[in-house]
Amino acid sequence: MIKRRKSKQLTIGNIKIGGNAPISVQSMCNTDTRDVNSTLMQINRLAERGCELIRLAVLDQDAAQTIKAIVKKSPVPLIADIHFDYKLAIQCIHNGISALRLNPGNIGKRENIEKVVLLAKKQNIPIRIGVNSGSLEKKLLDKDIPLSEKMVLSAMTHIKILEDLDFDLIKVSLKSSDVLTTIDAYRLIADKIPYPLHLGVTEAGTLKSGLIKSSVGLGTLLAEGIGDTIRVSLTENPEQEVTAGFEILKSLGLTERGVNFVSCPTCGRTRIDLIKLAKQVEERFKNIKEPLTIATMGCAVNGPGEAKYADFGIAGGINEGIIFKKGEIIAKVPENQLLDKLEEIITKSYK
Does domain 10-251 match CATH 3.20.20.20? Predict the structure, then answer.
């Protein structure tokens, strides 16, 4: 079992972050926040996938104003992403946002920072300090130290601004598009601060390359007990980020939500279109919320035994397949009936 780093617990809406709370999965809408209907539609789709926190880009006053209508109908807590304009942060707080993502050093005058922080403190609105390696302060870029250390210095500077204002509802992220830099930065800061850490590899890439980078980066840190909430950043439909986030957590035993899909690699013994079948199984049962393991195996001879740990599974033969439960064969059906029969059996088991 992974021993997690101890951190201060925050509450964002109805979601607890840090402490002994489960690691939460986040994403970000790619809609125009000013388009209330489109944004709410995407929020609902993300929530259906299990997304627990959703960030919205707040580019101007019109976007900040629409936050009020979006918050009222959102099924999950929302986070406002703010850059430079302190008035947008204040407007979002008044309009019911659950948390902010901003860097206080980018807000400008001290008096403006104080206005945001004092209101956030009064309303119990956490602030995530989000450091990205590609947008560090110039004075740090000129230092002759590793990039990960520059990122930590930037985060500590922003943290001090908040702490000097007696504000401690802080969450921190240190993201780079380079996996090793990201890992090093989080490792360096983990022992320096008590605050929860939001993990992510920024600009990770498209679905395949982004999944690999995020899995290596986030997986390494999570396996070391570092991380309280995650976002898998992909150049893809945000719903894919949520699915990927839960898959990473499930692979490490850090969540029990939803189905753990397993399938064997193809080989010369396979007598069924295993690739197609495995994809169909994932699609058919992707919305199950119970913590199940479903196996798709290519060989009816070895499959049930190799996947005897699975709650349910199917294994292919020649034009037919078998359905098994905890390694025991419970049905043999034609290939074209496998999915329907498996769904029938699973549904009856969980009525």
Answer: yes
